[in-house]
Amino acid sequence: MFDLMIKTIPNINPALAARWQSLRPSFVPKPTPAEQADLERRVDEHSSDLFDEINLNT
Question: What is the number of structural domains in the chain?
């Protein structure tokens, strides 16, 4: 969300933007390939379960 604000607000404080970009990796790390694969698998399972619950899967 804050990344989007930094990119779209024309008058954003450059010091604030730089600080956010330097801090972001410390609490929003990029997932490893194994973590990313697990996240994608879990999303697929969750989506499938959701479709089953509302009877969209045939």
Answer: 1
pLDDT 10s digits, 20-56: 778 776 766 778 899 989 988 888 887 777 777 777 6
Distance CA 36, CA 42 (A): 10
- Domain assignment present for residue 40? The answer is yes
- Helix or strand (DSSP H, E) at 26: helix 14-27
Angle, vertex CA 36, rays to CA 58 and CA 4, nearest 5 = 95
> Torsion angle, CA of 27/29/34/35, rounded to 10 degrees?
40
Q: Outline where 28-54 has alpha helix (H).
A: 33-53
Query: By residue range, what is the domain housing residue 23?
Result: 2-53
